[in-house]
């Protein structure tokens, strides 16, 4: 058994190195309680629905969500809108389809099976409309940033007047959490910007938290299943390990050797 | 190999075994006499076999859904993560499985270094092992390119560009590797093909690795030659099977923790940004398991010499059985070597750490010192140590660790007999 401690120590060192090399580039982000953190973490359904609303009313005019379909809004482990609600959401968008029998492209209302409608035709159009900066697709954005959810949450609340001596070009804004502090997206959130139907007060902090929760779900739609399955798998493995340990003791007791 | 002739009991078994001795093989594998004092560091061979099979099986499923095309690869990976049934599970096992595979292989290699398992008569096992390790690195690198994220693309660009350091033909070779004038779709498709091929080459080499192991039999923690079968050995089944199984389960718990609770911690965030040839990431870093070699590469100011240093760092391992001049295998009886061994472990960990940091200032200085020491260990310390070191008494057998009287005689005798050869 002594060796197990050695092996665990080695693992600990190895993990320590990993965390260390990540910690080196970390800024102090704003902290909040995320319901989805930890081995039993789950999404807060209401926060996901509110987050979708913020995304829809604020972000989606520039940021695409190209790997998400309207049907995902109904699925278990997500915002879990009812099928009617999701159908209504989908139908509120015009989707380009075709070609039809005449060889023409045509517009029709969205269906559950459609992917989220993109705000721009293509990346070039997105750049042209945003002063040359491409608003990144948001589907896996949380996983594509070193700081993850804390980073996005902080960034949304990180707008400040630039400190003396920092000169910003036109269309560039100061954000204390942005890499290099210069960002081409202006401050998007202000208190009361959206009206939540569940009566939650739409403070900047609340909206940031809701939309970040939503983005965590879009990046990891199976997070809840993963956590649940992980718990079962690890409990199963631990029980099996204990059983095998005692079988091993039994078998090795036939010869006089310590293991 | 087998000490005794095996005959199947049933007539059908006999008939079949005369034509294809599979049952003899199975009998050899279960009866295979194994030193009974093997500790848990020896369980990583079995764990590695498990890792290889896991990678092959999950990889097979991923390949059914993945699209090797520059415009669709990233999207197809997201498709696997979202829409394929349990695709996220398969992909996270595969991605973290690569890390687990390397974790296990590093423990396996360092176990061999500690107990002198690479020494005569096990040089061929060792060299096959080094080839497997090289192929693993190739497979891991190629696999990391397939999701076609930013780190995939730029990692591929950096690594393939290393070939341009070759004088005269370098540039031509790089173009040939790329199948064009930059990393692009032809590069991706060939990388996918090779990534699919290499695991099967590894599988073949693993068979040879085990075959070569079964000729002299396992080394053991005290590193002495043992009689087989004898009081010092136990049959592989059930003794070693159950012990390997227990260790494997412990390993799987760690593995499961990564897969289910921190599946992305060992990867780089930039790889969730689709590859963009026009935007270079701030820091291009390889996966953690390649970092020590990356540090060696960057510590040499000249590109060609850097590549040579990096390759030598791996290939020097193949010469290890001849660089280590000591006839005593296990570090248990080599007080000085034991210390140098742990310095080497620390050195490699330091190289790994600075490999993740920007190559400048203090980090670069540390990388250079650590690189120099790495080579010093193999080229100077090991050869000299074999002649200078006073080893402690080696026991005659496992069951009788220290005989009454003078156990030292055995060691001395052994040394002398080696010198006579």
CATH superfamily of the domain at 35-68 and 115-221 in chain A: Cytochrome c-like domain
Question: How many individual β-strands of chain A?
Answer: 4
Helix content of chain A: 40-55%
Query: If helices are DSSP runs of H or I spanning 4 or more residues, what is the number of helices of chain A?
Result: 7
Instruction: Indicate the radius of gyration of chain B in whole angstroms.
Output: 24 Å
The residue-averaged pLDDT of chain B reads: 92
- Give the strand order of the largest sheet of chain B, numbering strands 1, 2, ... along the chain: 1-2
Structure description:
Chain A is about 40% helix and about 5% strand. Chain A has helices at about 1-25, 45-55, 85-90, 125-130, 150-155, 205-220, 225-250, and strands at about 95, 105-110, 175, 180-185. The model of chain A has no long low-confidence stretch (mean pLDDT about 90). Chain B is an all-alpha fold. Chain B contains 16 helices and 2 strands. Chain B is globular and about 65 Å long. In chain B, about 40% of the residues are buried. Classes of the chains: A mainly alpha (about 260), B mainly alpha (about 425). The interface between A and B is large, with 48 and 47 residues.
Relevant terms:
heterodimer, A: mainly alpha, Cytochrome Bc1 Complex, Chain D, domain 2, two-stranded antiparallel sheet, 7 helices, 5% strand, B: 421 residues, mainly alpha, Cytochrome Bc1 Complex, Chain C, two-stranded antiparallel ribbon, 1% strand
Secondary structure blueprint with pairings:
The complex is a heterodimer of chains A (259) and B (421).
Chain A: H1 2-23, H2 45-57, H3 83-91, E1 94-97, E2 106-109, H4 123-129, H5 148-156, E3 173-174, E4 182-183, H6 204-219, H7 223-252
Antiparallel strand pairs in A: 1-2, 3-4
Chain B: H1 11-19, H2 22-31, E1 33-35, H3 44-65, H4 73-82, H5 87-115, H6 123-145, H7 150-161, H8 170-178, H9 185-214, E2 233-235, H10 236-261, H11 291-299, H12 303-315, H13 320-323, H14 335-355, H15 361-388, H16 408-420
Antiparallel strand pairs in B: 1-2
Helix pairs in contact in B: 3-5, 3-9, 3-10, 4-5, 5-10, 6-7, 6-9, 11-12, 11-14, 11-15, 14-15
């Amino acid at each position: 058994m002594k060796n197990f401690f050695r092996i665990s120590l080695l693992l600990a060192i190895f993990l320590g190195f990993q965390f260390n090399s990540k910690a080196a580039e970390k800024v102090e982000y704003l902290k909040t309680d995320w319901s989805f953190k930890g081995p039993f973490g789950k999404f807060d359904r209401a926060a996901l629905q509110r987050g979708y609303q913020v995304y829809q009313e604020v972000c989606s005019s520039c940021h695409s969500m190209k790997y998400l379909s309207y049907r995902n809004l109904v699925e278990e482990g997500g915002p879990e809108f009812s099928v009617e609600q999701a159908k209504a959401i989908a139908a509120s968008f015009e989707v380009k389809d075709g070609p039809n029998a005449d060889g023409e492209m045509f517009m029709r209302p969205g269906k559950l099976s459609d992917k989220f409608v993109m705000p721009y035709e293509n990346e070039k159009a997105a750049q042209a409309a945003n002063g040359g900066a491409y608003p990144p697709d948001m589907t896996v954005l949380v996983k594509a940033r070193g700081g993850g959810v804390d980073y996005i949450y902080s960034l949304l609340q990180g707008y400040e007047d630039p400190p003396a001596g920092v000169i910003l070009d036109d269309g560039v804004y100061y954000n204390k959490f942005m890499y290099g502090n210069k960002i081409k997206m202006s401050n998007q959130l202000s208190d009361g910007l959206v009206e939540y139907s569940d009566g939650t007060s739409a403070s900047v902090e609340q909206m940031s938290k809701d939309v970040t929760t939503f983005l965590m779900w879009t990046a990891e739609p199976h997070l809840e299943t993963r956590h649940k399955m992980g718990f079962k798998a690890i409990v199963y493995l631990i029980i099996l390990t204990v059983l095998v340990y005692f079988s091993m003791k039994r078998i090795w007791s036939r010869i006089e050797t310590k293991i | 190999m087998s000490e005794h002739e095996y005959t199947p009991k049933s007539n059908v078994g006999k008939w079949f075994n005369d034509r294809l001795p599979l049952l003899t093989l199975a009998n050899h594998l279960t009866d295979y006499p194994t030193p009974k004092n093997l500790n848990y560091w020896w369980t990583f061979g079995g764990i590695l076999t498990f890792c290889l099979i896991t990678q092959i099986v999950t990889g097979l499923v991923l390949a059914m859904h993945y699209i090797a095309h520059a415009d669709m690869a990233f999207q197809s990976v997201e498709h696997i993560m979202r829409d394929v049934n349990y695709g996220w599970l398969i992909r996270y096992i595969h991605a973290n499985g690569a890390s687990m595979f390397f974790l296990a292989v590093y423990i396996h290699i360092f176990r061999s270094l500690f107990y002198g398992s690479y020494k005569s008569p096990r040089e061929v096992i060792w060299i096959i092992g080094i080839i497997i390790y090289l192929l693993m690195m190739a497979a891991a690198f190629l696999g990391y390119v397939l999701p076609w994220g930013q780190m995939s693309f730029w990692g591929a660009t950096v690594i393939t560009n290393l070939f341009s350091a070759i004088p005269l033909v370098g540039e031509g070779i790089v173009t040939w590797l790329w199948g064009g004038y930059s990393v692009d779709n032809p590069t991706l498709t060939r990388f996918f093909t090779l990534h699919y091929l290499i695991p099967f080459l590894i599988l073949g080499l693993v068979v040879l690795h085990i075959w070569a192991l079964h000729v002299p039999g396992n080394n053991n923690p005290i590193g002495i030659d043992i009689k087989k079968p004898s009081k010092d050995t136990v049959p592989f089944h059930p003794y070693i099977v159950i012990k390997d199984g227990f260790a494997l389960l412990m390993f799987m718990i760690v593995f499961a923790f990564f897969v289910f609770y921190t599946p992305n911690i060992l990867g780089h965030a930039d790889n969730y940004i689709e590859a963009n040839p026009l935007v270079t990431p701030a820091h291009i870093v390889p996966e953690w398991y390649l970092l020590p070699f990356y540090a060696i590469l960057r510590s040499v100011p000249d590109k060609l010499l850097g590549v040579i240093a990096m390759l030598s760092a791996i290939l020097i391992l193949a010469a290890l059985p001849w660089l280590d001049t000591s006839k005593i295998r296990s570090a248990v009886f080599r007080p000085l070597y034991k210390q140098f061994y742990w310095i080497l472990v620390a050195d490699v960990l330091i190289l790994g750490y600075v490999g993740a940091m920007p190559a400048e200032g203090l980090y670069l200085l540390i990388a250079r010192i650590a690189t120099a020491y790495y080579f010093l260990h193999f080229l100077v310390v090991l050869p000299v140590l074999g002649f200078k070191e006073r080893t402690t008494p080696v026991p005659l057998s496992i069951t009788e660790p220290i005989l009454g009287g003078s156990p030292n005689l055995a060691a001395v005798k052994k040394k002398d007999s080696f010198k006579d050869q």
